[in-house]
Every structure is written in structure tokens, then in C-alpha cells.
Amino acid sequence: MAYQDLSTDALKSLHEQFATAYDDFRSQQLNLDLTRGKPASEQLDLSNELDGILDGFYVLQDGTDVRNYGGILGIPEARALGGELLDLPASQILVGGNSSLTLMYLYFDFMFHHGGWQREAQSSDGRIKFLCPVPGYDRHFTICERFDIEMITVPLVDGGPDMELVESLVDSDPLIKGIWCVPKYSNPTGHTYSIETVSRMAALPLRAGRDFRIMWDNAYVVHHLTETPDELANLMEAAFRSGTDASVIMLASTSKVTFAGAGISFLGATEANLKAFEGYLSAAVIGFDKVNQLRHVRFLQDRDAIDNHMAKHRAIIKPKFDLVLHKLNAGLGDSGVASWTQPRGGYFISLDTLPGLAGEVVRLAADVGVKLTPAGATFPYRTDPENRNIRIAPTFPSISQLDTAMDVFVTCVSLASVRELLGVQ
Ligand SMILES: Cc1ncc(COP(=O)(O)O)c(C=O)c1O
Question: Which residue segments constitute the domains of the chain, with CATH numbers given?
Fold first, then answer.
């Protein structure tokens, strides 16, 4: 029965039960961490073959010696691999270093110095603005903060951002210069954008102007948790048909495919956009790590091989997601005090507490040794207006750590909720 429907006596007895369980956890002196959206070491082990895979072979078919300088756009084979991930021709791919986040940051810097964003901000005597679907990825928001871009939140609904709102915001404010999107298995909610969302997104620059950018961060493009992956329509193709492809910037990386700290990243854009970005980069880079690009090409080969490799990741992490969902269902299933996502891919489970309680749940858990992502982290300026969203990252801890951490988590949500309903501190 929902806690809201219980009598005060029944709530008091639940309170006693949860408070006792909570004190038990305190005596265990735990030190557990549910914050890190990182691969576990068994997942990293799946790619150990990268080490030594070249075995002295460094020269490409076209004669390029990957150990030497040059080739900002990347070796052709790695560009083709990125094209398989982002569903683009190799000619529309730049291969970067080990972090797609760096490419995103640099792309913003490029847009400020060469792409008209600075001019726009100055001419209107104000800051440019970006649309941020929420809950979302904190580091996207950090990039905006670093560039002093005002963030406007848009809720994620079934099928992606609320496009009605997105369109009306863009129509009413010419200073809005872009939108962040994690279109597949979104961080942290697991949303995959619908075909309708993709086609409305493709038409957005027609309303917003040529300096508008759709930052299409496909970080979880191959990270399925089921054997029937979600389908995502090709934004670049839809934008090409609408004549807006110059506004599309796609991103992906192998961070959660091979080594999170030593993978390769991809930026997909029109050839003209890539050329301009390459020119900008040439002041800072003579070429990214081509040896690592070749190692990745050798190891990952093509989309089929990547899918097989990702199935091995799935075998490791699916039981962890299942465990978290089982604990949430068993502990909070009919309580009416929390709701959570059932992701079909990606790295996170997103949970909403009763309004106003996320910070308190995070504090209670920290006090007994379980670290959770800070409340508010999934919103711009670290401020969740309803203070209710918590991001759970199941991949890094071991199953037994996760088991205990989730018992603590469920107890903290229950305790905070019952206290709230009883009006006690
Ligand atoms: C949506 C999203 N984009 C990008 C990244 C980081 O990617 P990379 O390691 O390539 O910088 C993450 C990592 O958590 C992410 O969740």
C-alpha cells in the first residue's frame, strides 16, 4: 500500500523499522560508492588485447606511418569505424583523443572564436543560451557554465525532449544557439529519441538560424542492455533533407567500449564544418594519437565485431542493473514514494523521490558510508528545482557491494519519505 494512504500509527511503526535498519548500517562502517558511471575492471579486461595488438605493424596501406606526426582528421580506417558508430560516411568523421568531452569543449571554443557565437552574444549585449533537456549529463552543463552560456531546461518526456516547448522557446528567443542531446539511452534517464523527435530536431535550425547547433552526443550508441536494441533515426540524414545538416554535430567515443582512459573519440559533421574545425584545431594539434586509432581499428574491426564485444559488456553489467531494479522493486515497489527508470541501455538508473527529498536521501546515505551522486547534479547549475532526482550508477561496484549499497539506499529513501509524511526531522 502507498505510504501516503497509511494511518499515522502504521507510519510510526514503519519509521521505527527503517530507523533501526539505518542504525544497523551505521554500525557496519561501510565505504561504498554508487556515483561512478565507470566501467568495472572486468569490463576493462575485455579489451586487454589492445595492448600489443599492432605487434610492430605501423604502416597503413596508403603508406602513412602512424607513429609519425600528422593527420588531424584521423586515419581513414578509424574514420570509417567512427562512421559505423555514428551512421555517417567516413568523410564526415574526425577522430580525436581519448575523450569526446574534449571535442565538445573545443567545438564550443571554436564556435565562440570562429562560428559567430561571440558576435551574437555581443551584438545583443547579452549571453547566448542553450537548451538543456533534464535530467541530463552534468559535464554538458559544466561546458556551458565555463563559456558563460545561459542554460534553459526542457523536460524529457517519452520519446525525447518536449519538442513543443523546444520549438516555442527557439521561436521566442534568438539568443538560443543550441541544444544538448543524448539521443540514445540518455544519461541518466535511458530515453531514446523517437523518429518524430529526430525529424522535429532536424527542422529546428530552420526556426533558430544558421549558428544553431544540435550537440548530438551519442555516448551510448552501442550500449544496449537487451538483445533488441532501441532504434534511433539518423539525424544527419533528416537534417540533410531539411537543408540543416550544417547545424548537426555528432559525438561518440570508445570510452565505455574499450578503455575509458585510453580510447578514441569521434566528431561527426558536414565536410565543410569538419574542414573549418580542422583549421581551428591545427593551432593546437598536429595530429591525435594515430597508434591508438590503429589499435582500435584492429581490435574493434567493424560494427558486427563491436556488437559482439558489447554483448560481453552486457553479460557483466546486466546482472548489476537487474539487481538494482530488483532491490528498488522489492523495497519501494508499492510504497508510492519513489519512481525510477527501467533502462534498455546506457549506464544509469534515474530515480525520483518525493519532492524535496533527494538531498536528504543523499545525506542520509553518506552518513552511513554510501556515496551517491550529489542531488542536483543532473540539472544545470546543480539545482534540481524539485530536489527529487538521484542518478544511480550500477556498473562500477561489485555485485556484493551493490547489494549492500542498494539496501542502504532503499532504507534511506524509505526513512526520509516516512519522516516527511509524519512531519518529523
Ligand atoms: C552523455 C555522455 N557523454 C559523454 C561522456 C564522456 O565521454 P568521453 O569519455 O568520450 O569523454 C559521458 C560519460 O559519462 C556521458 O555520459
Answer: 3-43+307-422 (3.90.1150.10), 55-301 (3.40.640.10)
Task: Residue 160: name the closest of 202, 205, 191 by CA.
Answer: 191
**Minimal-distance CA residue to ligand 1 atom 6:** 101
Note the pLDDT tens digit of each residue in 280-307: 999 999 999 999 999 999 999 999 999 9
Residue pair 399/323 in contact (Cβ under 8 Å)? The answer is: yes
Residue-wise pLDDT for 23-33, tens only, equals 999 999 999 99
**Closest ligand 1 atom number to CA of residue 347:** 16
What would the grid cell of residue 76 be?
A: 581513414
Q: How many other β-carbons are positioned within 10 Å of the β-carbon of residue 172?
A: 8
Predicted confidence at residue 291, as pLDDT, reads 98
Atom of ligand 1 nearest to the CA of 182: 1
Amino acid at residue number 329:
N
Taking the CA of residue 255 as reference, the ligand 1 atom at the shortest distance is 9
More confident residue, 119 or 272: 272
Q: What pTM value is reported for the model? A: 0.97
Residue 126 alpha carbon to ligand 1 centre in Å: 30
Mean pLDDT, residues 408-417: 98
Ligand 1 site-directed mutation target among 253, 258, 288, most atoms within 8 Å of CB: 253
Nearest protein Cα to ligand 1, atom 16: 187
How sure is the predictor about 169, in pLDDT bands with cuts at 50, 70 and 90?
Answer: very high
Alpha carbon distance 425, 416 (integer Å): 9
Task: Name which residue leads in pLDDT, 219 or 124.
Answer: 219
User: Looking at the predicted structure, is the pLDDT value of residue 320 above 90?
Assistant: yes
The number of angstroms, rounded, from the C-alpha of 41 to the middle of its chain's C-alpha atoms is: 20
Between 119 and 187, where is the model more confident? 187
Ligand 1, residues at Cβ distance < 6 Å: 37, 99-101, 137, 182, 187, 217, 219, 253, 255, 265
* Atom 14 of ligand 1, residue of closest alpha carbon: 37
Query: At a CB cut-off of 8 Å and minimum separation 6, what does 94 contact?
Result: 72, 73, 74, 79, 82, 103, 266, 267, 268, 269, 274, 277, 278
Of ligand 1's listed atoms, the one at least distance from the Cα of 348 is 16
Question: Which secondary-structure segment (H or E) carries 215?
Answer: strand 213-217
How far is residue 418 from each of residues 3, 191, 300, 413, measured CA to CA in Å? 7, 30, 50, 9
- Is pLDDT of 118 > 90? no
Q: Pocket of ligand 1, candidates 187, 193, 258, 265: which has the most ligand atoms within 8 Å of its Cβ, to mutate? A: 187
